[in-house]
Amino acid sequence: MHKKLTFVITLAFAALLMVTSCNDEGKYEIKNGTVVYTYWTFSFGTIEHELKDADATTFQSIERWLGRDAAHVWFKDRLMEGADPGSLKADDYPLCHDKRDYYYQGAPLHVADMNSFDIKKLDDSELWATDSQYIYFDSIRIEGGDPATFEYIEHLEAKDRLNVYYYGRVLPDADPATYKSMSIYSKDKSHVWYCGEIVEGADPETFEAESTLEFEKPDAHDKFRSYRRGEPFESNNN
Q1: Which of 62, 105, 197, 226 could bridge 218 with an S-S bond, Cβ 3.0-4.6 Å?
Q2: End-to-end CA distance of the chain, in Å?
Q3: Reported pTM
Q4: Model confidence at 44, in pLDDT bands (50, 70, 90)?
Q5: How far is CA 136 from its chain centroid?
Q6: CA-to-CA distance for 5 and 118, rounded, in angstroms?
Q7: Does residue 63 contact residue 48 with C-beta atoms inside 8 Å?
Q8: Distance set, CA 161 to CA 153, 158, 166, 168, 185 (Å)
Q9: Cα separation, 169 vs 29, whole angstroms
Q10: Between 213 and 24, the higher pLDDT residue
């Protein structure tokens, strides 16, 4: 994916989350014999979603964001297929678990070893966790990693002795031993990345991200040139 397109998609996704997110401010209510989940958004104000197939007579609100009846479990207004209401427990928002699995924002993680499951980073924008067999990012179970040497780096980035991970995917050709994160940029001994994409021609040894960012100014530099959004920067000033 082209670097500029990646940046635009990232900004658009962030904007969508901002205008539609209700975080954990919603609540469950029983109205006219039906269960509804009510929440507020920047774009549309207060919204009510009816929980179809919910049994109002057995429904319980575990948290403002987690509910169950005798046969079903919901994360907000999302039906959690296969979750067991009888053994449901709320962890820190937005994680919960039952006797079989963990669920992040309502999606199953397919945890292989429940007894060794260990949370490394958890908030409403990302989850990193391990068990004795796998590394987990959000609802992705990462194959081929080494959970014993897993290390969370910073937002969306992590590594073990074998790989560097970005958005839960292996970052190709990245060297875990020399990998360094610099916000939207990162580098190792051989490469520089912008939002997970190679910055062609950049010099890793001298590459540095700018400490302060100004509109339409460079956001990084090396000994050869300046960069903005992963591309060589050309000033319009004469």
Answers
A1: 226
A2: 33
A3: 0.84
A4: confident
A5: 11
A6: 35
A7: no
A8: 13, 11, 15, 15, 21
A9: 39
A10: 213
What sections of 77-128 are H helices per DSSP? Answer: none
Cβ neighbours for 176, distance < 8 A, ≥ 6 positions apart: 159, 160, 161, 162, 163, 164
Q: 147 by DSSP, 3-state: which?
A: helix
Do residues 169 and 162 lie in contact, with contact meaning Cβ atoms separated by under 8 Å? no
Structure-derived torsion over alpha carbons of residues 77, 81, 86, 92, reported in degrees to the nearest 10: -60
Q: What is the DSSP letter of 177?
A: T
Q: How many residues does the chain have?
A: 238
Token representation of residue 37: 């989940």
Q: Residue 30 CB: number of other CB atoms within 10 A?
A: 13
pLDDT in tens, 3-34: 444 444 444 444 444 444 444 479 999 999 99
Number of Cα atoms under 13 Å in the Cβ half of residue 70: 4
* Cβ–Cβ under 8 Å, residues 158 and 128: yes
Sign of the torsion angle spanned by Cα atoms 145, 147, 150, 152: positive
Helix (H/G/I), strand (E/B), else coil: 15? helix
Which among 209, 140, 190, 194 is positioned nearest to 168, based on CA atoms?
140
Distance CA 70, CA 56 (A): 10
216: helix, strand or coil: coil
Q: Which residues contact 11 (CB under 8 A, 6 or more apart)?
A: none
pLDDT for 60-117, tens place per residue? 999 999 999 999 999 999 999 999 999 999 999 999 999 999 999 999 999 999 999 9
Spatial distance between the Cα atoms of 162 and 37, rounded to a whole number of angstroms: 44
CA torsion sign for 166, 168, 170, 176 is: positive
